[in-house]
């Protein structure tokens, strides 16, 4: 059996393990059931990948995150390690072949969603595999009190029956003590080896600032710390708005959200990773699998939905061990905004029933039918048809997806049909004068034999690859060919696909998951309450507040967060600051920002002094929001 360090060096080019990694790997190799709680950036994937490479056989990795599965499979394949992922959109015949490859093709990793474990074919083939390890990623999803609970995770117990002698490793980046116990119980661990790394980040200063003008404070922070930064915002529109604002202030910035094309995502991400831009402004779609060690600042311009998500996003700062900052900018409107965004959009059981019935009617599914039927789904049209609030409806569909009633694939795609409507000779005469289209047209003719005779559905990606172009240029070329009356073109955009996993049973279907819906709504309410408590609590060290949430005790104040710094600041002479303010205003009206630049005191102290001077009518506020002396 090869030593783990040799595998680490050969494939990952590291010469030593991070804290706890080696002990975890040794426990897994020894056949122990193992629970791993490592914060974001702790190197969880190596804890199952290296033992799987040490031992004979294949490792089954269960994960709910399709994008992360694809990233890890690509990374392993790039290293010459045989890995595959069973994602959605695979036909039965393809699935059959892929599973055979896992049995006979020397594959080392099979990534699979928990929903796939319900298929008899998958269960049958797993029985025949030489499985050396079962890895459960994002293991908090198995607990009803964990973030993003997915009932399909309960299927993982099946793997223990299919491979009774194989040990299991469960991994998560964030779990409260009750969730940890729930995971261990649900996965039927016996005498588990439990590895927890403290959530403490001594180099990371957690800051919460109350700001009426968040944009100005944002500019100040980023110019003071002109190093790689991430700004998290509430929606896609804001990513563009904030990045444009920063650019106008000569701060290089780009943006990232789930609605960008893959090319735009890769371009913007690469520019930021390579330090061509200082800042990336993003929704919470950004960050999974990102390991940029030199991020100096992570700023939340809007309140996050939970301590769990905040801790993961904030934890992307300072992974190189240098001092870094995790900052939340808040104001008086944030509490109502976070409640509107995350609580008022929680669908009730009755609303979920309504959406499910309308969804079945929309696709004309009869009672008792519909199992494993797939449909292209235009979400916006569906909402307009039934006058649904788009965000409430989307959350209801997500609940149906998480509870394995439907499968909702959210990738944007183009459905394209083409038919050539001129003769062969006329087409080649046309190509003689339109050389730009020659390769594209001939690629389609070779790939689709009946394209002259009937309307043919074409695969944009495959045609673009064969013609050595990209999908955008290909669509433009097809539109030109349509204008020149060479082809008929059907170009329909769909933003999703829906697969019905269960036969239609209307209320009966939803009644089975009603208690889960209500419990998850309660969990979300508790999470929002916890994040509001965190941002409002200015008396306890911010690091201690976060660590306490995750069950850690006996922790010392960090000394560098916004609360600790305020505590350590020596009391300033208020009379001296009052005198300085009056002296400055004798030279003319000034804003609080102008005063702060010339007076050596903290922003909070200046606000206190200005308030006192206003109360004593020594100064007034002008119509332009500046301050002036009352007697002038």
Biggest pleated-sheet summary: 7 strands, parallel
Distance between the termini: 86 Å
Q: From the helix content, strand content and strand pairing, which structural class follows?
A: alpha/beta
As an assembly, this protein is single chain
Taken from the alpha-carbon principal axes, the silhouette is globular
Overall helicity: 40-55%
Helices, strands, pairings?
Blueprint: H1 4-12, H2 21-29, E1 34-37, H3 46-54, E2 58-62, H4 66-78, E3 83-86, H5 92-104, E4 109-112, H6 120-128, E5 131-136, H7 157-162, E6 168-172, H8 177-186, E7 193-196, E8 204-210, H9 214-224, E9 229-232, H10 236-248, E10 253-256, H11 262-273, E11 279-282, E12 297-300, H12 307-314, E13 324-330, H13 334-342, H14 349-362, E14 373-377, H15 379-386, H16 390-402, E15 406-409, E16 413-420, H17 424-433, H18 438-447, E17 456-458, H19 460-466, H20 471-483, E18 487-494, E19 496-500, H21 507-511, H22 514-536, H23 542-549, H24 562-568, H25 574-585, H26 592-598, H27 603-615, E20 619-621, E21 627-629
Parallel strand pairs: 1-6, 1-7, 2-4, 2-5, 3-4, 5-6, 8-13, 9-11, 9-12, 10-11, 12-13
Antiparallel strand pairs: 14-19, 15-19, 16-17, 16-18, 20-21
Helix pairs in contact: 2-3, 5-6, 13-22, 14-16, 19-20, 25-27
